[in-house]
Amino acid sequence: MKETKDIIANNLISNGVDNHIRLELLNWYDTITHQNYFSNKEKTLIQQDGLAMGAPSSGLIAEFFLQNLEDTHLKKLLDKHNITAYFRYVDDILIIYDPSHTHIANIQEDFNKLHPNMKFTAETETNNHINFLDITIHKTPTKWITSIYRKPSFTDSIIPYSSNHPPQHKHAAIRYLHNRLNSYRLQQTECKEELDTIHDIMLNNGFPIHTHLPPTPRPPITPSSQRQEKTTQKWAPFTYVGKETTFITNVFKETDIKVTLRANNTLQKLLMPKSQTRDKYNRSGVFKLTCPDCNKAYVGQTGRSFIQRYKEHRSAFRSNKNTSNYAKHALEHSHKFSPIQESMQILQYQDKGAYLNTIEKYYIYKEFSTNNHLNDEANITPNKIFDAVLKLH
Known about the structure:
Blueprint: H1 2-14, H2 19-34, E1 37-40, E2 43-46, H3 56-80, E3 83-89, E4 92-97, H4 104-111, E5 129-132, E6 135-139, E7 144-148, H5 167-183, H6 188-204, E8 234-239, H7 243-249, E9 257-262, H8 267-271, E10 285-290, E11 297-302, H9 306-318, H10 325-332, H11 340-343, E12 344-349, H12 354-369, H13 384-392
Helix pairs in contact: 1-2, 1-3, 5-6, 7-13, 9-10
């Protein structure tokens, strides 16, 4: 990692970067590369060497090092071994050479001498074909033919069509497969084989099969100098629960707010250990207190426990304090104050935060729409999203 830092520092100097900015960037580099700790079996561990696995910065830092290695040594190696062409994508390299003048074992030996921490392996063509990334290159006496390559471990599992996921998520894999088919220059036979494979994947995951059409040509890219400055785009994230979400998000079609959808059944939720179930009144969330004499309802929230919040309302009733709308109603109309099991309904469990505030506002709005609430009307404003939800129920 120190070598890469020196490479970056030298590049910043050679490109005339201001000294203050250069030091700032190098300080960032130190922060990023030293924060490579991770947890395993409830223990926090620190990685002693190398970059943090899965960190967004790791690929970029590794690319700095590899490009410098290529700039320093590649031309000499290509000339020494009469290599016709060299292609690299991340850590996959494709080399084209004439075996009558070049020996792959010698190339591999010299590549492995570039750096003590780097180990190169070689795979040569078999039966006139070789795999590179997601294509197989076939060599014929007159030309090269490409086809789509899938690893032996490949399965045709994608998000099933019947799954309760946003349609955009479910169709993403199918769009990718068709876009790749249209982007790669496949021969007619290879194109037909790939299309049949896509149809098999769709059928095995319950997708309807539609006639394959070529993609609509993309509009030409406007040069950056001619682009008009755009205002910052606003996005609203929604958790997809079904058609109800689609109905609600239609409210934003005529606005400048873009909608993004996310799924609720994530791997994190499935893999996280489940905590022991607590008594329902010892949890937090949104609740409703209903008057036993007239059925008027007060909706509230608590980031503590429901039992604590109930005791506060009961205390206001007993001491005749004006700190609870529910207690105030019972006192003014001489209605009784029922036990928690009879008067309190838990509407939704939720930890303290912005989401809890939104849930409370929705349930208050719901009671307000039926003119059955005891909450302050001054805090209730028109809400198109809540109206859309109430129409569904």
